[in-house]
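Morning F.,

Quick status update on the modeling queue. The single chain you submitted on Monday has been processed. Sequence for confirmation:
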Amino acid sequence: MKRVNEIRVVLETDQKVLAHGNSLRGFISKHFPQNPLLTNHMEDGRTIYIFPRVQYRILENRAIIIGVEEGIDVVSALADHFDYLELGSKKYPILKKIVTKQKVPVGISPRMISYRFLKPWLALNKNNYSRYKLFDNFHDKKQLLRNILTANLLSLAKGIEANILENIVVDRLELRP
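Structure tokens below.
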């Protein structure tokens, strides 16, 4: 099983952050517009279509910046760069910074593992949404969602150069509105 280098920089504030990860990416990108790892865009503005090496999350009163493999050094440098976040029209003072580095195993597990999404999973794009609407029964719709999740996981594995030689099994997919 491949082990992927990861860094997480957690920026804690004293308030609930009323923004999304893309607002955090915009704030960081504004300060470092020429860094394609932070913006996920080339210098000419075109989107880079690979697994992002830097990812942005907002969970309650924490902004989280995750660096994977090539993104580790640039995310590590960000940890000391900011004393506040400006997301939308609001400024959030950074009260605490937590930096953790780890090697994350990526591959097929010999046993089933349960996962849950912390944020809504946007499974359907305009192409697969039209396919989804064609199905009359929920069983077929759910199978399409399983296939999409499997494809997402294979795309992630390809993006971090993890060879998946066995089948990915999405056994139970619980959906909530």
